[in-house]
Amino acid sequence: MKVGLFIPCYVNQLYPKVGIATLELLEKLGVDVDYPTGQTCCGQPLGNSGYESDSKGSCQLFVENFKNYDYIVCPSGSCVYHVKKHFDILEQTEDVVNVRNNIYELSQFIFQVLGKTNVGASFPYKVGIHKSCHGLRGLRLGSCSERMDAHYSIEESLLKEVKGIQLKTLNRVDECCGFGGTFSIFEEAISVKMGKDRIQDHLSSDVEVITGTDQSCLMHLDGLINRNNQPLKVMHIAEILNSTL
Amino acid sequence: MSHAKEAELFNKDEAKVNWHDQALWFVRNKRDKAAHTVKGWEDLRNLASAIKANVLSNLDDYLVQFEENAQKNGIQVHWAGDAEAHNKIVHDILLQNNVKKVVKSKSMLTEECHLNPYLEAHGIEVIDTDLGERIVQLAKEPPSHIVLPAIHKTKEEVDALFQKHLGTVPSHGDPRYLTNEARKHLRDKFLKADAAITGVNFAVAETGGIVVCTNEGNADMGVHLAKVHIACMGIEKIIPEEKHLGVFLRLLARSATGQPITTYSSHFNKPVQGKEMHIVIVDNGRSEQLSREAFRSSLHCIRCGACMNTCPIYRRSGGHSYKATIPGPIGSILSPGMDLKKHSSLPFASTLCGSCSDVCPVKINIHEQLYQWRQIITKNVKQPVVKRSILKMAGIVLANSKLYGFLGRSSRFMLKHLPKSIVNSKINTWGKARDLPKVENDNFEDWYKKRKS
Amino acid sequence: MSRASILNAIKKNKPESVPLPQIDLSLFHEDIDLVDIFYKNLESVGGRIVSLNTIEDLDAEIKKRYPNAKSIVSCSNTSQLATISISNETEPHSLESIDLAIIDAQFGVAENGAVWISENDFIVRALPFIANDLVLILSKNDICLHMHEAYNLISKRERTFGVFLSGPSKTADIEQCLVIGAQGAMSLTVFIF
């Protein structure tokens, strides 16, 4: 099994530690991982902003970079969802279809493909999960509060097995944080208010560390927390699952 | 003014935003509890969606069948292509019956057609009889929500409004007192009205009958007292058979307010001897929306308002920020079909979080339609130069590994070395309220290459 | 745009025919105590319930609950409390001062506490809405599980006017505060026997 690691553009540039934790974690789990250099972006920022047709080049490049892997793993549910959902703008060649079928968000890959919940991590902190929307309602990484399905959550299943961790329950279990890509700029007032409200929920729920599967949401929350000097840390789920504290 | 600007204004008063958010979240919570009590809720949603899909694919036949059956029962059926035709038909019926005073129960269609100002300009008194609608009517405002028209008003504001218009005494916003005063005021209007106008929740092709749902009993009070009943409906309100009401009535009120059913679900099939009943069937852009494959299912909507209650943007920007008859997520996919330019900011008033689609009782893929409208709007409505050029440029950069590598490195360099005061300054919208991430020495790719070698 | 042009536009723009789904009732079936669930739901929507040991107690129990009711219309043969009689000639405006209306309910719906009544049961359409208080009489044996069963029960009726009534009139339009007694009946009591 050959796995291609997709590190989203902003994670590559701004959060290399998340990429490192993802790679190390997969290697620890015995996965043969390769990072194809020259990768850029899945095209999501363009698509979500209404410029999908300008993103064809980057989507095509994405397929070129990843077509030869059995699986593609990415520490961002949002990017994975974009490939699965919106790569229909490309001609559906075998390569395109394979890439769309074989791409997984990191925790989803560990849970569904590797069939593991305990990854041998330890992390003695009180943790609140931010369930990013594209992972939750796009990839269905868990049941969402709107639907009357039986409860499940891939993130919770993995995090519950982490030694020493205390998972905290929020008042609003899966409300959006307000990042939303370019929404965070063009609807700045609401974006900031939504982020502040999410953070307050974590604070009121006695959380020390906010985690999630999407660094973009976490970047938004982290930016607010740092600006307002709030007693919270933000870590990607890969960093917790790779932790041996 | 764009949604973003309106939302920014609304957010100047954070306490009010919190109040508004919590009031609607309370309703969303009640909806969750109500839905949880129903065995097979998701099956019901699937059924409702499939029935509506069937309706749209046979809509012309069902409308004709409905008309025939309604006429057999002595109901007069009228057809209106647009808002103007609708208003004229209603006015003509009122003229023929020498009507001076009209009571009206909730109908988003008549809001959409701006019926009230039309009739008022022709010297007819129109009283909205749903309490929330009466409140906004007295305040000379449009409803800010399709089920809770006055959700943006505090009880103190209602108190002041009633003192001014209904002569009530100050009550510190006592809802019981104010509701009772409204009851007396509206009783008088019901007793004196010559005609009653209602909306239509469902029109049954099989029987030619209509169902109107209210909690206050205002539609029935109006209709059963007045000598003329005019019911106005969009073409998409049709359902094939009466038994399908079982599906929709189980979903509607639970989704809307968390009630197991509305207090009154009134089935009108035949006018009382000596009275008139009219139904006005209105297109007003709906048949055009039907032609748009990606947006067709927006016509499934049963106007429950659940997408508004759940929408984190709606809750924090208020219904008026949408500047559309139907605000919130569903409005943001319906309104661009009516006037693309005017409503071009609405599909962007979303993080595409998808909560609206999962809460929707008829499973409209609202957030996916928002995405699709965005693609159309950037091609057809002039976009801000900065946004357009940055995103077009990004398309070029992201399709080119080398260019991307170079630009990534240089922007990281700038982020790292420019003083914080510039990085977080006003020109950088991100930085108004948020810090930018601290930049490390290497990006991931640099680290990976070093590690490999 | 006339009738013809609306219909033509629809014909031109509608998608390929999609089949009408069947309602599979087994998805919604539950073995529950119908009377118990009906009680709970009716209470949750602001209605009151009086359980009669025998139908003969009806009038005494109504009097106990509505001691001040003076103008009473009864459309039920089981109650003799009427002080005013009505017919289908009755002018609805004249019912404005009715204190209490007593009506036989055809059946109740467990899932939502609603009862079905139709024009024949109350003679003047305005009555159940304009009366200040409302009494409904319902047999324990006439409670169905859900709305699918309810529509089956009324499928053969003469269609004039009918209503599912779930509790007294209410509103929450002022700051989401629930107030019982909006434009319709101020209270609703179901007497079950």
From TrEMBL, chain A:
GO terms for molecular function: oxidoreductase activity. Pfam families: CCG. Residues 3-83, 128-222 form the Cysteine-rich domain. One of its GO terms (cellular component) is cytosol. It comes from the Bacteria. This is Fe-S oxidoreductase. It comes from Confluentibacter flavum.
TrEMBL record, chain B:
InterPro entries: 4Fe4S_Fe-S-bd, 4Fe4S_Fe_S_CS, FTHF_cligase-like_sf, Helical_ferredxn, LUD_dom, LutB/LldF, LutB_C, NagB/RpiA_transferase-like. It comes from the Bacteria. The keyword Ligase does not apply. Gene3D superfamilies: Alpha-helical ferredoxin (1.10.1060.10), NagB/RpiA/CoA transferase-like (3.40.50.10420). It holds the Pfam family LutB_C. Signal peptide: none annotated. Keywords: 4Fe-4S, Electron transport, Iron, Iron-sulfur, Metal-binding, Repeat, Transport. GO terms for biological process: lactate metabolic process. One of its GO terms (molecular function) is 4 iron, 4 sulfur cluster binding. Residues 291-312 form the 4Fe-4S ferredoxin-type domain. This is 4Fe-4S ferredoxin. It comes from Confluentibacter flavum.
TrEMBL record, chain C:
Gene3D superfamilies: NagB/RpiA/CoA transferase-like. Residues 95-192 form the LUD domain. InterPro entries: FTHF_cligase-like_sf, LUD_dom, NagB/RpiA_transferase-like. This is Lactate utilization protein B/C. It comes from Confluentibacter flavum.
